[in-house]
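Re: weekly structure request thread

Next one in the queue (153 aa):
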Amino acid sequence: MRKKEEILNVIFINIPITLVLCIFAQLLTIWEGNAGGFSVSQFLLNIPIAYIAATLIGLGIPSVRWGVKFAESRGARSGGLAYALLMNIVVNTVYTLLLSIIMTFVNVFLIAHGPVFAVLAGIIINFIPLWIVCYIVSFFFAPLCRKLAAALS
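Done, posted below.
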């Protein structure tokens, strides 16, 4: 993938990922009893923070290259389903881990003024459900975003 195409791909894939992440994280907070209901203002505050963070993660950390190496090391062929599934494990883990840390810190510590322990607990408790949801979203949207990035570069 050329550099311009890579940048466009990061810009495009972060749209569905951050939208779903921000919605689902808030729903998890409600389901856990830590919020009374869905807050549109909180959602609108989280979207730009998550999008900027995700873009910096995507541009600064070579998770796609790591994912490619991981998939190839398992014998998967480029373009196949196994390849996409395996590659997405690595890419999604990097994104979800870092976004979970950043967004939990912002929401629990900076906005709600909760203790650092609550940040750590939130990351640990919510990581797996967020990972699963983001994995599904990125798996289905990644091909579309790559095609769009290739067409525009």
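The mean pLDDT is 93. The chain is about 85% helix and 0% strand.
Next request, please.
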